[in-house]
Amino acid sequence: MLILIDDADLTKIEELYNMYPYDGVTTNPTILSKTGNPNPMDQLKKIRALIPSDAMLHAQVLSTEADDMVKEAKHMVSVLGENTYIKVPVTANGLKAISILSKEGINVTATAIYGVLPAFMAAKAGAKFLAPYVNRLDNLGYDGVQIAKDIHTMVKSAGYEAEVLGASFKNSQQVLEMGKFGIGSVTVNPDTLKALAFNGVAETAVKDFIHDFEGCCGEGKTMLDFE
């Protein structure tokens, strides 16, 4: 499973990458606005420079007309370079833009997905990733995880290469459910990522091991002190 960081804060991204080699970063206009940088492209360039060259960077267009989306997407790729995935909302104009961009070889992530059929149409249009908003679907009274699973099943049954990129999680259990189902990628906020990969139980176990070892072998001792 690909695991991406859903944030644009450089400090948080660097901290997480220092812990584990993630697969990239996803952003959206709201996430970028929270950084306080009035130049969003500058923030994206800083993220691109911070993460490995083979890591993915997902960034969203703001235009609403199909032709303008295409122009904006091409500009973003020209500035941000390889491994840039352009997030395009699955609206009527968005689907048209996805089709145009995919035919021109630009990687597209279909975003703002609130149902199975919109995702399926985005896959037909050539999107590489399909990003259902799991928690937002829950808040609308749906089962967000189940919708993500249904998208995965329908798209794979039809033979499309598009992968579900689960987004908008409220807890690590939602991420685990998708992973167990075989969904290929998720993007997760830093707090949930930490809860998913690191927990206090392991830290407590380590302290117990050290306490017992030092009781026998001496305070501050490690295996480096013995031959």
From TrEMBL:
It is found in: Cytoplasm. The keyword rRNA processing does not apply. InterPro entries: Aldolase_TIM (IPR013785), TAL/FSA (IPR001585), Transaldolase_AS (IPR018225), TSA/FSA_arc/bac (IPR033919). PANTHER family: TRANSALDOLASE. The lineage of its organism: Bacteria, Bacillati, Bacillota, Clostridia, Lachnospirales. This is Transaldolase. GO terms for cellular component: cytoplasm. CDD domains: Transaldolase_FSA. One of its GO terms (molecular function) is aldehyde-lyase activity. GO terms for biological process: carbohydrate metabolic process. It comes from Anaerostipes butyraticus. Its main location: cytoplasm. Keywords: Schiff base. It holds the Pfam family TAL_FSA.
